[in-house]
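Anyone up for a design puzzle?
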């Protein structure tokens, strides 16, 4: 069987990282929601340093930041795809976008709850 892909596994992985980095930069440059989430991530990171949160709290905080930003990125991709497929307003496209936004909302609410569990006792104590 001929080798259709002549580039090595390592070269392909490096290209994948490059494409992912490009996507991240597009998100940061073009999406206000990601910019806001980066600001919030910075604030809770500073709070984590200030309150000297535990290793477990750091792990959970990092996972929550990554989850919210990842879901937001996927939602943005869905929105771009939907707009590409059907540029005019369409109720089904609107529903698809609403569902994607709902997923971001769920992740954001979970992150807020986790932040409350981590920081409220430290602020009040």
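Challenge accepted. My sequence:
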């Amino acid at each position: 069987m001929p080798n259709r892909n002549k580039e090595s596994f390592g070269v392909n992985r490096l290209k994948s990282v490059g494409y992912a980095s490009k996507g991240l930069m597009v998100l940061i440059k073009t999406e206000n929601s990601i910019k806001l989430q980066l600001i919030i991530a910075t604030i809770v990171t500073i709070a984590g340093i200030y309150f000297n949160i535990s290793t477990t709290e750091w792990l959970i905080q990092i996972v929550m930041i990554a989850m919210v930003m990842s879901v937001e990125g996927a939602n943005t991709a869905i929105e771009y795809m939907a707009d590409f497929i059907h540029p005019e307003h369409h109720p089904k496209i609107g529903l698809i976008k609403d569902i994607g936004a709902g997923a971001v909302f769920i992740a954001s609410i979970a992150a807020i709850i986790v932040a409350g569990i981590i920081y409220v006792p430290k602020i009040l104590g």
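A detail worth pointing out: The radius of gyration is 19 Å.
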